[in-house]
User: Which sequence fits this backbone?
């Protein structure tokens, strides 16, 4: 058990028979009336978001969740296969538990959140940025850089990302996994 004073981003709670992670919270103390805490949650099992307001000091049930390092091996019809880097056990995870599966590259390290009591994988967290090679993109036209125009580029994993016009084919780029956007070229 914990209270609203223990809220922090990433804290996992049990609400409505589901496990949620806090993505945002704000402690509000109005001039009139009692204090309260506005929170935004994300379900670790379904990915749905939830907004909820708690009275200050209200008791909540925390969930015991553990991050375990895994290495992505390959994907097949059964799902995405990962290997625990400490025990070398392999597990298969469904695509719906991975935020952006198209950005996974063979051998990439990820964190898998596992519910301690049931040992079930909840969600796969990719690193904030991944470095991928562009396999195909249209060539940029010289002098067409006055605007902030972008073009589609196909990456080595099959994902399509919008990149600036000056980025060429066979260039290594850094992609933000949180929103799937181009970040910068890698030298």
Assistant:
């Amino acid at each position: 058990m914990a209270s609203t004073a223990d809220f922090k981003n990433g804290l996992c709670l049990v609400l409505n028979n589901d496990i949620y992670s806090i993505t945002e919270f704000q402690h509000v103390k109005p001039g009139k009336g009692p204090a309260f805490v506005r929170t935004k949650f994300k379900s670790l099992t379904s990915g749905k978001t939830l907004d909820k307001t708690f009275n200050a000091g209200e008791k909540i049930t925390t969930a015991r969740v553990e991050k375990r390092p895994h290495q992505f091996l390959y994907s097949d019809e059964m799902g995405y296969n990962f290997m625990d880097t400490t025990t070398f056990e392999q597990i298969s995870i469904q695509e719906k538990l991975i935020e952006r599966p198209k950005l996974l590259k063979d051998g990439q390290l990820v964190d898998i959140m596992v519910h301690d009591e049931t040992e079930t994988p909840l969600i796969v967290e990719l690193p904030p940025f991944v470095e991928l090679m562009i396999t195909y993109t249209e060539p940029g036209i010289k002098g067409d850089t006055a605007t902030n125009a972008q073009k589609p580029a196909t990456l080595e994993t099959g994902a399509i990302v919008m990149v600036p016009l000056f980025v060429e084919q066979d260039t290594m780029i850094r992609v933000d996994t949180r929103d799937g956007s181009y970040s910068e070229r890698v030298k």
The first strand starts at residue 2 and ends at 3. The chain has no helices and 16 strands. The chain has three domains: 2-60, 65-125, 130-185. The two ends are 48 Å apart (CA to CA).
